[in-house]
C-alpha cells in the first residue's frame, strides 16, 4: 500500500483530502505544520505539501524533504498559481505541482504516475550482496562495514519477508532496551542504516516504515 504524508494547515481541507485518499486505497498520515511533520516517524512513499504553512517557507520544506530522499514523491498542492511560484516549486524539488482547487482525478493520476515511476521488482532493482563473515555490503568499489546489530536486523528483515518486523522486534534485534521509549533512538539507527544501504546502491526506501507496525525490507539482499 502506498503511504502518503499530507501537510496542510487547513483542517477541513486536510480531513477532506485524507478521507478521499483513504477511499482510493492510500494510507495517509497528516500534519498541519512543519513542526507536526517533524514528529511523524517513517518515510512515506509520497508527500503532498501545501506551500502556505504557518511559520514555514514551503519551498525550504520541499528542499529539506528532497535532501532526505531522492526517491520519495513530492506533490505540491497550493493556491499559488503564478508561473514563478510553479517554477520555484519544481526547482525546490517537487515532482508534481498542482493548483487549488484540484480535480480529484488529476490528483490520483499524479499519484499513480509517481507509483509507476518508483515501482521496483527484483529484476530491475539493485541486488545488494552482503558478506556474512565480514559483515560488509559487497558492492563494486564500495565495501561498507555493518555493525553487528545492523547486520542482524537486515538478516531478520530478509527472513520476515513482506510482513516485516514489528517495532519492538526491530529494537530487540538491535539490542535496545525495551523498558524505555526507543522510538527516536530507533529512527536514528534506521536512518544511519539506510545511508549505508544507499551508499551500496540501494534505494532510499530499502527499509520501509509501516505505520503503526514497524519496518519491512524492499528490494533483494543476497548473503554470501
Automatic annotation (TrEMBL):
List residues annotated as DNA-binding: 117-219
| Modified sites of kind 4-aspartylphosphate | 50
Concerning SUPFAM superfamilies, the annotation shows: C-terminal effector domain of the bipartite response regulators, CheY-like
The reply on keyword DNA-binding is: yes
Q: Which GO terms describe its molecular function?
A: phosphorelay response regulator activity; transcription cis-regulatory region binding
Question: What region holds the Response regulatory domain?
Answer: 3-115
One short Pfam name that applies is Trans_reg_C
Q: Which GO terms describe its cellular component?
A: cytosol; protein-DNA complex
UniProt keyword Transcription regulation, yes or no: yes
Superkingdom of the organism of origin = Bacteria
- GO biological process annotation, one example: regulation of DNA-templated transcription
Domain named OmpR/PhoB-type: residues: 117-219
Entry keywords, A to Z: DNA-binding, Phosphoprotein, Transcription, Transcription regulation, Two-component regulatory system
InterPro entries, alphabetized? CheY-like_superfamily (IPR011006), OmpR/PhoB-type_DNA-bd (IPR001867), Sig_transdc_resp-reg_C-effctor (IPR016032), Sig_transdc_resp-reg_receiver (IPR001789), WalR-like (IPR039420), WH-like_DNA-bd_sf (IPR036388)
Entry protein name: Transcriptional regulatory protein CssR
The gene designation is: cssR
Amino acid at each position: 500500500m502506498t503511504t502518503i504524508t499530507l501537510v496542510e494547515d487547513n483542517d477541513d481541507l486536510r480531513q477532506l483530502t485524507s478521507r478521499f485518499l483513504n477511499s482510493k486505497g492510500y494510507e495517509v498520515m497528516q500534519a498541519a505544520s512543519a513542526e507536526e511533520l517533524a514528529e511523524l516517524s517513517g518515510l512515506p512513499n509520497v508527500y503532498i505539501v501545501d506551500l502556505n504553512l504557518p511559520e514555514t517557507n514551503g519551498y525550504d520544506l520541499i528542499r529539506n524533504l528532497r535532501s532526505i530522499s531522492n526517491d520519495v514523491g513530492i506533490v505540491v498542492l497550493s493556491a499559488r498559481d503564478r508561473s514563478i511560484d510553479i517554477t520555484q516549486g519544481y526547482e525546490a524539488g517537487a515532482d508534481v505541482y498542482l493548483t487549488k482547487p484540484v480535480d480529484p482525478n488529476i490528483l490520483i493520476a499524479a499519484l499513480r504516475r509517481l507509483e509507476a515511476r518508483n515501482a521496483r521488482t527484483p529484476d530491475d532493482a539493485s541486488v545488494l550482496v552482503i558478506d556474512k563473515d565480514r559483515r560488509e555490503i559487497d558492492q563494486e568499489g564500495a565495501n561498507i562495514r555493518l555493525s553487528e546489530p545492523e547486520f542482524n536486523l537486515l538478516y531478520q528483515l530478509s527472513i520476515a519477508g513482506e510482513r516485516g518486523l514489528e517495532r519492538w522486534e526491530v529494537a530487540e534485534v538491535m539490542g535496545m532496551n525495551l523498558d524505555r521509549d526507543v522510538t527516536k533512538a530507533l529512527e536514528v539507527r534506521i536512518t544511519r542504516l539506510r545511508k549505508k544501504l544507499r551508499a551500496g546502491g540501494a534505494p532510499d526506501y530499502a527499509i520501509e516504515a509501516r505505520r503503526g507496525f514497524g519496518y519491512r525490507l524492499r528490494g533483494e539482499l543476497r548473503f554470501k
